[in-house]
C-alpha cells in the first residue's frame, strides 16, 4: 500500500525483455536507505517486488500482465521514474490510498502552464471514467493528484510547482502514456451497490451495512 507522495525520482539503468516479462534495473539513492529484497516498491504507480539491491539501485521482475496494462513497455534507458516505498503503520497518509495496481494507461492530451502552476489533462478508456470523481483523488504515474475537471473521457488535474518539479510530470509531453489508478474506494462503493441491486433494494441502510460487515 502506498500514498502517492513521491519520495524520489530514479531512472532506468536497464530494461530487458525476457521470457514471460521483463527485468528492470533502477538507479536511485534516497529509497535505498532501508530497501531490501522482497520489499514492495511503487514505480510510476506500479507495485513491484524488489529482487536485488546494490549500492546504486535495485532490480524488479515485471510480468507480461503488468507490461500489457502499464506504460512499462515503452521504457528506455535514462527515463525518469517516480519512486515510493510501501506505507508503514507509523507513516502519515499525506496523499490517498494507492494500491499500486494500475487500472489503465492514459494519454496526455494537454499541458497548460499557468504561471508556475500547471493544468494537465489526460484521456482514459471510457470504461474507467465512471471511477473518476470531481475533486476526488487519482494516481497518475503513482502521484496522488486531485481531479479539477471532467469532460467526457478526459479529466484534468491541477499541479502545484513542487509536485511538477519533484516528479516525472515535468518530463511529459502531449501524447505520452501515463499509468492511471482510480480511487479504490469508488470500486468498493460500486461493489456494494451492485450487491444491493441484486437484492432489488437500492437503499444503503443499517441492515445493508450489517450484512456487508461495516457494523
What does this protein structure show overall?
- With 215 residues, this protein is mostly beta strands.
- It folds into 2 domains: 8-85, Elongation Factor Tu (Ef-tu), domain 3; 104-182, Elongation Factor Tu (Ef-tu), domain 3 (Beta Barrel), CATH 2.40.30.
- It has 4 helices and 12 strands.
- The chain has helices at residues 64-69, 161-165, 184-198, 206-211; strands at residues 8-18, 21-27, 40-43, 46-54, 57-63, 80-85, 104-114, 117-123, 137-140, 143-151, 154-159, 177-182.
- The strands form 2 sheets. Strands 1-2-5-4-3-6 form a 6-stranded antiparallel β-barrel.
- The longest helix is centred in the last third of the chain and has 15 residues, at 184-198.
- The mean pLDDT is 91.
Characterize the biggest β-sheet: 6 strands, antiparallel, barrel
Strand content: 35-45%
- N/C terminus separation: 24 Å
Percent of residues in helices comes to: 10-25%
Global mean pLDDT: 91
In the CATH hierarchy, the architecture of the largest domain is Beta Barrel
The CATH topology of the largest domain comes to: Elongation Factor Tu (Ef-tu), domain 3
Rounded Rg: 18 Å
- The outline comes out as globular
What is the H/E string?
EEEEEHEEEEEEHEHH
What are the segments in which pLDDT stays under 50 over at least 5 consecutive residues? none
- Counting copies of identical and different chains, the oligomeric state is single chain
Amino acid at each position: 500500500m502506498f500514498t502517492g507522495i513521491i519520495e524520489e525520482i530514479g531512472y532506468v539503468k536497464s530494461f530487458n525483455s525476457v521470457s514471460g516479462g521483463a527485468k528492470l534495473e533502477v538507479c536511485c539513492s534516497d529509497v535505498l536507505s532501508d530497501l531490501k529484497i522482497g520489499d514492495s516498491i511503487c514505480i510510476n504507480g506500479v507495485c513491484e517486488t524488489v529482487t536485488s539491491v546494490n549500492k546504486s539501485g535495485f532490480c524488479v521482475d515485471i510480468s507480461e500482465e503488468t507490461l500489457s496494462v502499464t506504460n512499462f513497455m515503452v521504457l528506455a534507458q535514462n527515463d525518469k521514474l517516480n519512486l515510493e516505498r510501501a506505507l508503514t503503520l507509523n507513516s502519515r497518509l499525506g496523499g490517498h490510498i494507492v494500491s499500486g495496481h494500475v487500472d489503465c494507461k492514459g494519454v496526455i492530451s494537454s499541458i497548460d502552464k499557468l504561471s508556475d502552476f500547471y493544468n494537465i489533462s489526460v484521456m482514459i478508456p471510457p470504461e474507467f471514467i465512471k471511477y473518476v470523481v470531481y475533486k476526488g483523488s487519482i494516481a497518475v504515474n503513482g502521484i496522488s493528484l486531485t481531479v479539477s475537471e471532467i469532460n467526457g473521457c478526459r479529466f484534468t488535474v491541477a499541479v502545484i510547482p513542487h509536485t511538477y518539479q519533484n516528479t516525472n510530470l515535468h518530463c511529459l509531453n502531449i501524447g505520452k502514456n501515463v499509468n492511471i489508478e482510480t480511487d479504490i474506494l469508488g470500486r468498493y462503493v460500486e461493489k456494494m451497490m451492485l450487491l444491493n441491486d441484486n437484492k432489488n433494494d437500492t437503499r444503503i441502510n443499517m441492515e445493508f451495512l450489517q450484512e456487508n460487515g461495516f457494523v
